Amino acid sequence: MSTKATVEKLVSLCKRRGLVFQSSEIYGGIGGFWDYGPLGVELKNNIKQAWWRAVVQERDDVVGQDAAIVMNPTVWRASGHLDTFADPMVDCKECKKRFRADALVGEVAASAHGHEAAAEVTRCPECGGELTPPRMFNLMFKTYVGAVEDDASVAYLRPETAQGIFVNFANVLTATRKKLPLGIAQIGKAFRNEITPGNFIFRDREFEQMEIEYFVKPGTDEQWHQHWVEERYNWYLRLGMHKENVRVRQLDRDELAHYAKDTYEVEYLFPMGWSELEGIANRTDFDLRRHAEFSGRDLEYFDEETGEHIVPFVIEPSAGVDRLFMAFLIDAYDEEEVRGETRVILRLHKDLAPIKVAVLPLSRQEKLVPPAREVWALVRKHWMSQYDDAQSIGRRYRRQDEVGTPLCVTVDFDTLEDQAVTIRERDSMEQVRVPIAGLVAALRERLEAGD
Ligand code: GAP
User: Which one-letter DSSP state was computed for residue 238?
Assistant: First the structure.
């Protein structure tokens, strides 16, 4: 973690610069829901694109899909979510605050969605009042499908995207005619009625997941598990995360979800400590067997090599976009002294930066407007860019640094004579003069180096 980044600084930067806003803020907000502003949506899209590129586009064994958020409710009986996707909840009888009991025991039983002994803490951590005994609280959001609100029309907002993949396994296999190992990747919204959302966008009630269900022959699962742990860990480093801030941790047996044989977490050193970015689980054949049982459909795979019908095992790398968003921002955040002033910089990887190029006329003088607009027209066809002519050039550089724009292009009075502009680099602040005729190539060289 950047020692300079705090959650408070991040929240303030995110609001000020249009990265993240509290949802429905003008009405006082709503806990656990966030909106992404003009720059936030760019960063979020870039994270998703970088993931999709690495796990789908650049591989020949993973395909994509996009399933509906609301599914037949039997899915959640088969997956075990209706029975087990619950956290123990306690209320303070005095101040009426509500807590996740396992988070109070806390540190003792920090695993996600476990039923661990919660009874040990009996006093409210805020006011010292007496706590109610823990009771299980299902985290799925309930809704009704159709005009009648009765038991028969109950449905749920999905708490993970994964089940939309399991139920489509046979469809995708038939449609693609692929053989195992085969991965199916998906990015989409998930919803959990978390008892205690918090730490900005770390724990939300509405969030996005990027999940792969990677179907393999039983017996090869452990080897593929290792493959995906390495792949995913290296992805974070390739996107510029500092190695000292990212680690892989194998979960203890008592931390495992009901479906998992083994799980590793990629963790990030957030300001509140090491916390999960992504889980990489060996889900065995649990899900396919359960869906075969509950649907009555054959979800087996015919192995042509051995002539056997098998139920594939599944390795599942599952990451949360919002959490990654927060981690990439914290990791990129830096402050340095430049000529007696503090320069705030987001040293974001160029692939993640919301704006790749800013076009800045040196001043608002009329003469500079046509060439500056022409340069912008040239650039915006290729990359997300911004045109900024408000305030001094120094301030505009700082504004771009603060949101991680890797390159600024300055149009000045010499441009009128020499048809050239200045490219200024975010991290080094180095400037080079290039002819407008070669500008796109010069920017491409800098923005696409290493691709
Ligand atoms: N399909 C497996 C699954 O959903 P999980 O560990 O519950 O596993 C996977 O979630 C990832 O989704 C987490 O590593 C985290 O990045 C993200 N995630 C889970 N709950 C979240 C929440 N309430 N807010 C934001 N992200 C969350």
Answer: H
188 lines ligand 1 (CB under 6 A): no
Indicate the Cα dihedral angle 225, 229, 234, 237, nearest 10°. 170
The confidence score (pLDDT) of residue 116 equals 39
CA dist 7 → 28, 117, 196, 336, 352 (Å): 20, 30, 17, 18, 20
Q: With a cut of 50, which residues of the chain have pLDDT below it?
A: 107-119
H-helix or E-strand spanning residue 345:
strand 341-346
Q: What is the pLDDT of residues 85-117, one digit of tens each?
A: 888 899 999 999 888 888 887 533 333 343 334
d(CA 359, CA 384) in angstroms, rounded, equals 11
Closest CA to 97 of 61, 117, 124: 124
The 10s digit of each residue's pLDDT in 141-151 is 999 999 999 99
User: How many angstroms separate the alpha carbon of residue 134 from the centre of ligand 1?
Assistant: 23
Q: What are phi and psi of 227, to 5 degrees?
A: -55, -50
In a 13 Å sphere around the CA of 150, the CA atoms on its Cβ side amount to 3
Q: Within 10 Å of residue 3's Cβ, how many Cβ atoms?
A: 9
Closest atom of ligand 1 relative to the 324 alpha carbon? 16
Residue of minimum CA distance from atom 6 in ligand 1: 279
pLDDT at 298: 95
Kindly give the number of the ligand 1 atom that is closest to the alpha carbon of 202: 25
Q: What are phi and psi of 437, to 5 degrees?
A: -60, -25
Alpha-carbon span 319 to 303, nearest angstrom: 30
pLDDT at 118: 41
Per-residue model confidence (pLDDT) at position 87:
86
